[in-house]
Amino acid sequence: MAGTEFVGRPHLAGMRSRVVGSIVSAVGWLVFVLLYAGFWAESFTLFQSVIIFFISVIILLGLLGILWASWGMRWVR
Description:
Layout: H1 15-40, H2 46-72
Helix pairs in contact: 1-2
């Protein structure tokens, strides 16, 4: 019965892969931030570290936006 959980609910098609992608992206971003803070941040000034943090957030949000925009565009009327 694999693949039949969305029968009759077409608005949920593709949701699982996007949710998994969102979770993996968030965990990957947290790993990056922790590794950066633990190993690489000492060679940068506070201002540079803040900029790197904000750039990483912008990249994460851009990736998530691309991931979810294709799903949301299906329902535009």
